[in-house]
Amino acid sequence: MRTGYRQRRIIIAGIFITFEGIDGSGKSTQIALLKRRFEELGRTVVVVREPGGTALSEKIRTLLLDHRNQDLCERAEALLFSTARAQLVHEVIIPALERGDVVLCDRYAESTVAYQGYARELPLDEIITTQEFATYGLRPALKVLLDLDVDVAASRLLGSYADRMESAGRAFQERVRQGYLKLAQANPSEWLVVDGSQPVEKIAQEVGSYVEEHIITDS
Ligand code: ADP
Ligand code: TYD
Predict the structure, then answer these.
(1) What are 40-59's pLDDT values in tens digits?
(2) Which of 22, 63, 107, 146 maximizes ligand 2 atoms within 8 Å of its Cβ, making it the mutation to test the pocket?
(3) Which three-class secondary structure state does DSSP give residue 191?
(4) pTM score, two decimals?
(5) Which candidate, 79, 138, 208, 219, has a CA 20 to 30 Å from the CA of 190?
């Protein structure tokens, strides 16, 4: 697999795919469907969602998404997301890839670039460098971007609880969306950009076919 994981200089046998997009873009729906597709091919699949996935990372998640923490400064927020990620990579993702499993991750480093870099407007180069450090340089074989209009995404989430990040407002979500599109445009070979307004099954077909054609054959 394509990976920037250098520190331990081992051969990673698994497949690592991340899903990105604004809140409500359909990531968890598509991850469940891709998981089923891999399992039908006889693969063991580990699904993780960020922030979270380890005992420590879940504690950090609670801190980050709690409305009472309005005084959390932007740099501390970026570092906390990155800290939760470092622990998840170390404790769950790398061991799973070493076992040869498929790892499907609901958000990864590009979430911090889009949310804390583009939307919070922290210095992009510093955020990217921090991600290199936090992830041990581990990069996914593929990043799937579910691109969706912010109003459509918001309408899908109507009635569900909005955490501290989800309450940041429409303009914030729009900056996140545009940030993702810039990231994908800058490195098209690393991304599959999908129109997230299509029906669930159509998106699943598009993602599954791409993965079978470009990722499984490479691994
Ligand atoms: P995310 O994980 O990106 O926040 P979800 O997968 O939880 O998004 O989807 C948010 C809501 O939108 C859920 O109620 C889900 O059933 C619905 N949904 C997901 N994908 C689609 C789609 N392609 N079309 C319409 N509704 C969708
Ligand atoms: P979550 O409930 O997991 O949202 P979703 O189901 O849409 O993924 O909440 C995570 C929130 O944190 C979401 O609004 C995106 C935000 N976030 C960041 O701002 N930076 C990050 O690095 C990550 C991983 C998430």
Answers:
(1) 999 999 999 999 999 999 99
(2) 107
(3) strand
(4) 0.95
(5) 79
Paired tokens of 6: 């250098």
The residue length of the chain stands at 219
Write the residue with the smallest CA distance to atom 16 of ligand 2.
Answer: 165
- Which residue lies with its CA nearest to atom 13 of ligand 1? 156
CB 194 within 8 A of CB 144: yes
Ligand nearest to the CA of 145: 1
Query: Secondary structure of the chain: what % helix, strand, coil (to 5)?
Result: 55, 10, 35
Q: CATH assignment of 2-218?
A: 3.40.50.300
How far, in Å, CA of 160 to CA of 149, rounded? 18
